[in-house]
Structure formats: C-alpha cells, structure tokens
Amino acid sequence: xxxxxxxxxxxxxxxxxxxxxxxxxxxxxxxxxxxxxxxxxxxxxxxxxxxxxxxxxxxxxxxxxxxxxxxxxxxxxxxxxxxxxxxxxxxxxxxxxxxxxxxxxxxxxxxxxxxxxxxxxxxxxxxxxxxxxxxxxxxxxxxxxxxxxxxxxxxxxxxxxxxxxxxxxxxxxxxxxxxxxxxxxxxxxxxxxxxxxxxx
Amino acid sequence: xxxxxxxxxxxxxxxxxxxxxxxxxxxxxxxxxxxxxxxxxxxxxxxxxxxxxxxxxxxxxxxxxxxxxxxxxxxxxxxxxxxxxxxxxxxxxxxxxxxxxxxxxxxxxxxxxxxxxxxxxxxxxxxxxxxxxxxxxxxxxxxxxxxxxxxxxxxxxxxxxxxxxxxxxxxxxxxxxxxxxxxxxxxxxxxxxxxxxxxxxxxxxxxxxxxxxxxxxxxxxxxxxxxxxxxxxxxxxx
Lengths: 200, 238
What we know:
The complex is a heterodimer of chains A (200) and B (238). With 200 residues, chain A is mainly α. Chain A is built from 7 helices and 3 strands; from the N terminus they run E-E-E-H-H-H-H-H-H-H. Chain B is an alpha+beta fold and 238 residues long.
C-alpha cells in the first residue's frame, strides 16, 4: 500500500480542465475545444431535467428545509451511482427518483421526528393535489412516522402528498394496486385511531 | 397514462411532462392553459431549475497547450465546485459535482449552502481526470486533491499506516478558489487498495485529534472528514 507525497511535482500539470461554461439552464458543463462528450454530460442533462421536480417533491413533504435539500442531493448521488440514466425513458427515471426520494425523506422524518414539517408547504401544487389532503397527510405522517411500516408510508406520501393516482403509485413502488389500496386503508385506520386517542 | 380524459393532472404527470422538455401534448397543453394551478406549478419548476445548485461536468479533456500548464496561465473555474458527500460515500464522481452535501447521517452539523467538498484528480499518461468514485488507480498514477473548505481554515491529508492513520501532509491553510493542495501523491505498486482521509477543520489538529476525527468520520461545524477508498490494479491483477 502506499501513496507517496511528491511535493516537487509541478501542480500545473494537474490543471488541464477547460473553463466551465454556464448554459442558460443554470447548469455548468465542460466547454471549449478540449471537451469531449461523456456520461458526465448525460448526468448533467439529467440533473437539469429532474432536479426541480424532485426538489419540489421533497419540499412537499419536508417543507422548504435543509432536510429537503439534503434528500434531493442524496437522491441524485444515488441516481448517479445507480446508472439509471442510460437508456431509460424520462418516466422510468422519474419513477425511480420518486421512489428513492420518498424513502429517503421517510428516513429523515424518522430520524428527526421533532422537525416541524407543517411550516412552509411548497407554494405551487398542481390541481390534482388537494391542499387540505396534503396538509392532513403531512400531519398524519409526522405523527405516525415512527410506528408505520416504510412501504405504507411511501404509499401515503405518493398518493396523499404527491397526488399520484393509485395505479401510478403502484407502478412507482413496484407493488400492486390492491396493495396500495390496502395500505391506504390501513393508514386511514391508524389516523382514525390516533384522532380518537387525541379526542379522548 | 393519457390525459385526454382527465380534468386533473397529478404532480407525477406534470413532472414527467416538464422533465421531458414539454413535448407536444395537446391534452396537457389545453389543461395547463386553463388551469392556473398547474401553470403555476410548471412555472415553479422553471424557477427551481434556474435556482438549482450548479452541476459541474468536467469531462475528460485533452491536455491543454503548454501555456495552460503554467500556474499563472491555467484557466480558473468560473464557479466554485464541490462534491456531494453521502454518508460514508467517500467520493462521488466527476459527474456529480453538486454544490451541496448530503447530511443524512445523524451528525449534529447543520449544513449551510456550500458545504465542504473534496475532489480527487488522477493524472495518468499525460491526461488528468477527476476521479469518478469507482475506477481503479494504477501504480504510477499521480493524485492531487482539490478541496472546497467553505469557511474551514485548515486541511490535512492522512493515510492508514499499519496501526493508525498517519498524516501525509502537514496541516495547511485551505487553498483559495479551488486550487489543488500543494502536493501530489503517487500510487505505488504494492497490491491492495488505497485509502485517504481529507480532514478540513476550523483549527489546526494535532495527530491524536486528527486520528480521532478520521476514525469517527467526524462531520461537524468545526471538523469535516472525507475518506476516499480507491481500488488499485497492479500488474499481478491483469
């Protein structure tokens, strides 16, 4: 084993990188005569395409918090490591990202139960997502995150926080629609019980 | 899923539509035209994209002209780079240069924008690449490190000696503007992988404190440790 320090080596030889050029999308990519296309560029493109939706998704559950940013970044690190980008359609990659960041966000909620996710709900949500349902789901998830199986929480996040239909949620999680329905019912039972406990 | 018969669009549908570059889809376009919420959502994605942390994609480059190898003449990146660090993940890749780090490990450090980052440069055969986090190194490769200290003042590099982590470099001031650390490392021909620890700290650390920080992979507001594990391919492996 060994890596030997060589203080005398001229460091200039380590700097053949081209000056990064910033494009209109805010991404920075290698540019100039010395660049040649590579997977890196592919990842950059993917990052530009998927970052904003995934960040928005994380913020729907975690608010505009550092935790949401962390989960977003971790999701992209995993995307890069997964090699998912190549040869997959946007919908497939998006489903993978949804699944991954949902699970990461649940982990964060479990680790940081005291985090107040009631604050600062993402401002813009599509019409397919009912704001009252979203707020109620977030409150229920926060309350029950420590006692509900991850898969069940993931179904609730996708259907109630992200507004996916049951077929899409099933597809994203790789489970049957019947399982999605069963998990939603079970979660509703839990929240009903919780409400009863609180009211009594 | 078709949208022709839908009065509502889910976030997933809109996200896929937006991420696909808004391809021609009459049903979605009609819906968005009359739905202020969905329109606002798509606009929020545009804003989110514009404000997203930069991804630097420093693809492999042919050697520059001789003048570019001079420190005075070498090009400077326009933006600071940093690398995402995911838990124990030593180093991500050239592909993933995101100006935030991940903090999913239960450390008490609350990240601020632009968390510390480390980048490993591998010089081989006249070409320098940013290490991709997976590729093996070879005997004779020269390694250089760039760090983004983000407010931490000191940087030290260590490698595991037979019994404990040992400092490879004297504690140094963090270089400015993404400059490489003032030394390079050359990979030897001994079998086995290589491990390095880069320790960024607010104050200079003595050897004992440095070792403890590495062993605990400390990441706090005052000490930030990154461990790099490199596979090595030697002649006997080929």
